Amino acid sequence: MSDNQGFDLIVIGAGSGGVRLARMSAQKGARVAVVESRYLGGTCVNVGCVPKKLFVYGAHVQEDLDDAAGYGWRIPKDGVSFDWPTLVANKNTEIERLNGIYGQLLESAGVEVIRGTASIRDANTVVVGDQHYSAKHITVATGSWPVVPDIPGKECILTSNEMFYLPQLPRHAVVWGGGYIAVEFAGILSGLGVKTTLLYRGDLFLRGFDEDVRRFTEQEMRKKGIDLQFNVTIESIEAHNAHYQVNLSDGEVLETGLVMAATGRRALVDGLGLAELGIELNASGHIVVDDHFQTSVPSVTALGDVIGTPQLTPVAIAQGMVLSRRLFGDGQGEMDYSAIPTAVFCQPNIGTVGLTEEEARKAGHSLRIYKSDFRPMKYTLSGRDERCLMKLVVDDQTDKVLGAHMVGPDAGEIIQGLAVAIKAGATKAQFDSTMGIHPTSAEEFVTMRDPVA
Questions:
Q1: Residues 270 and 259 in one domain
Q2: 229, 263, 297 — which closes off a domain?
Q3: pLDDT tens across 307-335, in order?
Q4: Which residue in 60, 137, 292, 438 is the catalytic one?
Q5: pLDDT digits (tens, 9 = 90+) for 256-278
Q6: 153 Cβ contact partners less than 8 Å away, ≥ 6 residues apart
Q7: Do 255 and 271 belong to one domain?
Q8: What are φ and ψ of residue 7, in 5° steps?
Q9: Is 365 one of the annotated active-site residues of the chain?
Q10: pTM of the model
């Protein structure tokens, strides 16, 4: 056992938020270490948004090939094939490249990377293996981990973690869940030729999104052949050689080659020693912090998924910058969680920022609602039966645009730009006075003139 003195900050977890906090703090002159037991970059880079988006791109290629005929291209069916191991291998190469970049960023900033599993011994000591490290400040940025319901046969279930490394694709897959991870993986599997069933216990998936967006996405996913079953859950799973028998709550039995659960994530706090230290957790298992990321132990802070704020990489990164400023800068800085844009990379994509219609009405706003539902120009020659939805939620008294929502190709790319306008408090009149880029889908957001409600 040895004692290593002198760190100003030890960050436990090298995900997006932890890495940003470490780098910014080191650049301010602090002596910083990061402890990581798995991989640099955290969930997003390794088993989350980055590889998922690569899989989404791969899954969409078949539709582009099908659409090509309308533009005069002739692609013989027997001349096109898909190789899943190639996609996985190329994805792995890209992830390894990103891991290297994260390592270089930390090294160039002067951050010491400690490999291993950390626990917090006391308010200023972190233990990794037989090494003790002391620091003035300790930050927990360990993220979250998939939760698998405790049902008979749960050992047969895969999570999003394992989906990125499947040795081969099944002919049929069951995706269990109704959040964005479930919806995205259902689209990926279906797009790659897997007959896909999505099961969700509620009336409609994507709870918390605008109701029109949820309904429209359901409609478009059904068009693509995805079997959506709501108000149903899995009671048990039985393994039978190369396939599984999935027993549902409504009495139906499904035969499938893969069962994936996207049924929630929990804060990853196992083994950290938080209870022994007196650090408070809330009912959902997240670390309780104040507005400045302070836990119930003054020298210990926490950020990212582990504190239960929106599970988005840019949120964790912003938190890291704010916390670094507070610890080693001018002591100022606040997080603003309003109007956070987000996307669901299902097919077609969802992009959204600001209030949903339901949230705005609940908050007491008198509203004007603008909607446009149309077939994107790209599909006019191909004949593809896919439509696009755009929606603006406007406060009738102030004319302020409270929310913008879209389901359609490149929705995330389009909504990112609108997020700036909504964050700045733009009015519908300002949207109307903005010239559209013609011909694009995006111009619909500045040409919707007549409210529908």
A1: no
A2: 263
A3: 999 999 999 999 999 999 999 999 999 99
A4: 438
A5: 999 999 999 999 999 999 999 99
A6: 236, 237, 238, 239, 244
A7: no
A8: -80, 140
A9: no
A10: 0.95
